[in-house]
């Protein structure tokens, strides 16, 4: 008997890719605002305010649904694991920025699609073929063309921080996929945002600086954008295999480049633009392969 794929899967894949592309755009906007705030406020304060404003945005929805119904889930352990790894990812990246140049830390942190693809095999039992591995590898090559890393930088122990950030984010995304669509997005958002807020509340007293009105507005914007981005990521990873949408994480670099050109007068050289083309190409290739597999499954279904 030939195993076929539900035709709805194709629409789910396209939707998941769109959600992921939208999420990384929002994350790029958050990074742009964070870069603006970084010179004025301690990083942990910005992270705490991000969680705090995000929680304020979520509270009306949580109370409307009911606090008990929102947090009541048989997968509460996985929710706590996800919340911890999201927090760990952000914290490790912030610490790494103290010792590494931002382009280097950013490039290393984009090893996360590698980790997502790798972890999806033992933890999600996904079958990852040579084509998906090639797409992920090619995308990372594009990253390194945009943000080249020297051999001297690679042996710096500080690279462990963005690597930990990448691995932690990958673990959080794999856990998201493992929970699947059995979890309401609001439940996952509540655990992630609430958990992160509680953890950072113990740290922020050591880093606090009174923000002005402009700073508060920017931090509120980060909270709103972060909540939106997390919702988009959660929905994307509940729709399709983690390894399918992992390469599209690289597109955040493209948005970051555009934001850098518009707001920070930062431009790429020829090598960087070649990297951009490679990243776009790797994402298009994954999308194309999924379309081919879907058409093939429909043809098999029609003759079975």
Care to describe what's here?
- There is one protein chain.
- The protein has 304 residues and is mainly α.
- The chain has one domain.
- It contains 14 helices and no strands.
- It has helices at 8-38, 43-65, 67-71, 76-99, 102-109, 112-124, 130-146, 151-154, 160-179, 185-201, 213-239, 242-245, 251-263, 270-302.
- Helix 2 (43-65) crosses helix 11.
- The chain is globular and about 65 Å long.
- The relative contact order is 0.21.
List the topology elements.
Blueprint: H1 8-38, H2 43-65, H3 67-71, H4 76-99, H5 102-109, H6 112-124, H7 130-146, H8 151-154, H9 160-179, H10 185-201, H11 213-239, H12 242-245, H13 251-263, H14 270-302
Helix pairs in contact: 1-11, 1-13, 1-14, 2-10, 2-11, 4-9, 4-10, 5-9, 6-9, 7-14, 9-11, 10-11
Short description:
The chain is built from 14 helices and no strands. It is mostly helical.
Over the alpha carbons, how many angstroms does the gyration radius reach? Answer: 20 Å
Q: What is the tally of helical segments?
A: 14
Quick one: how many beta strands? 0
Low-confidence stretches: 1-5
Largest sheet: none
Write down the overall mean pLDDT.
80
Question: Which percent range describes the beta-strand content?
Answer: under 5%
| Proportion of residues in helical segments | over 70%
Indicate the overall shape: globular
What is the CA–CA distance across the termini? 8 Å
Write down the secondary-structure element order. Answer: HHHHHHHHHHHHHH
Structural class: mainly alpha
Total domains, how many?
1
């Amino acid at each position: 008997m030939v195993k076929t794929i539900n035709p709805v899967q194709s629409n789910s894949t396209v939707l998941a890719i769109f959600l992921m592309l939208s999420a990384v755009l929002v994350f790029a906007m958050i990074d742009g605002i964070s870069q603006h705030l970084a010179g004025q406020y301690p990083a942990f304060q910005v992270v705490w305010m991000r969680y705090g404003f995000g929680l304020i945005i979520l509270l009306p929805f949580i109370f409307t649904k009911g606090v008990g119904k929102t947090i009541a889930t048989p997968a509460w352990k996985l929710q706590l694991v996800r919340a911890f790894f999201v927090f760990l990812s952000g914290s490790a990246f912030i610490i790494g920025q103290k010792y590494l140049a931002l382009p280097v830390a950013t490039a290393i942190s984009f090893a996360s699609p590698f980790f997502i693809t790798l972890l999806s095999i033992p933890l999600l039992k996904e079958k990852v073929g040579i084509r998906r591995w090639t797409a992920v590898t090619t995308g990372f090559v594009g990253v390194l063309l945009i943000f080249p890393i020297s051999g001297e930088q690679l042996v710096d122990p500080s690279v462990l921080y963005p690597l930990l950030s990448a691995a932690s984010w990958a673990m959080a995304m794999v856990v998201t996929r493992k929970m699947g669509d059995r979890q309401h997005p609001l439940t996952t958002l509540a655990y992630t945002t609430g958990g992160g807020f509680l953890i950072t509340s113990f740290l922020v007293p050591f880093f606090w600086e009174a923000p002005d009105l402009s700073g508060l507005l920017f931090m509120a914007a980060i909270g709103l954008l972060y909540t939106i981005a997390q919702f988009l990521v959660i929905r994307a990873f509940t729709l399709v295999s983690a390894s399918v949408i992992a390469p599209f994480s690289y597109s955040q670099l493209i948005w970051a480049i555009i934001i850098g050109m518009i707001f920070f007068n930062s431009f790429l050289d020829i090598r960087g633009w070649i990297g951009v083309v490679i990243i776009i190409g790797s994402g298009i290739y994954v999308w194309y392969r999924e379309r081919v597999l879907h058409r093939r499954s429909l043809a098999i279904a029609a003759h079975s």
